[in-house]
Amino acid sequence: MPLIPEEPQIHESAQGPRATPATGRTAPTPRPVPGPRPAAPSRPGRPGPPRPAPPVQRTARDVAPAKPGPSGPAAPAAPPAAPQIQLIPASAEGALDAAEEAVDLLLDSGRAPGDVLVLTTGSQHPWAEHELSFGEASYWAQHDAGDDVFYADAALASRAASRPVVVVAVNGGPASAAAAALPLALARAGALLIVCGDPEQINSVLGAGV
To answer: Which pTM value belongs to this model?
Structure first.
């Protein structure tokens, strides 16, 4: 550590006339040259100027919301909302036509064709009969593509995938067909179930609140 020269002590008894140079001016008293001093500590409560922090690259992990710790129980997930149910009164002979009109209204309102599944409890829809004539493989391939309205027998509802809207035409068949098809259709409907048929029969299966 470099030494700091001390300032000379001047006693009153040693004071005398200052040396006068030849020019007649009084020579100033030489002062010691201070050496390097340690940096002064910052005052309490008044920190020195902050240093700029280096840029930090943020990642998805950095900005992800904090997960609840083990001390607190996680909030239970909200149950999915039940689909709405609409009943269109129709006879067994007119149920398929009512279902067709419902599909047209859905498409006109902006629903995508691939959002709609149509099930029949009695005779097959003409489109389904036509497509099945080429074999079940190509028929179900169109179902899996999910880009158009799909028509199927209600007995095959368990094989069909869920879609936002399911339309059921109760167009005949045994009473057990509707009793089995309607609960399956309700389970396949993501947002809306439309049932076309006899209101008394439908209410007996789905409940009086339909």
So the answer is: 0.62
Contact call for residues 85 and 202 (beta carbons, < 8 A): no
Q: Assign 150 to helix, strand or coil.
A: strand
pLDDT tens digits for the chain (210 residues)? 454 555 545 444 444 445 444 444 544 544 444 444 444 444 343 444 444 444 444 444 444 454 554 555 555 665 567 899 999 999 999 999 999 999 999 999 999 999 999 999 999 999 999 999 999 999 999 999 999 999 999 998 889 999 999 999 999 988 888 899 999 999 999 999 999 999 988 888 876 444
Q: Are 127 and 103 in contact (CB under 8 A)?
A: no
- The whole-angstrom separation of Cα 14 and Cα 38 is 34
Helices 199-206 and 175-188: angle between axes, nearest 10 degrees: 60
In whole angstroms, what is the distance from residue 184 CA to residue 188 CA? 6
> In the numeric block, which tokens belong to residue 77?
């997930």
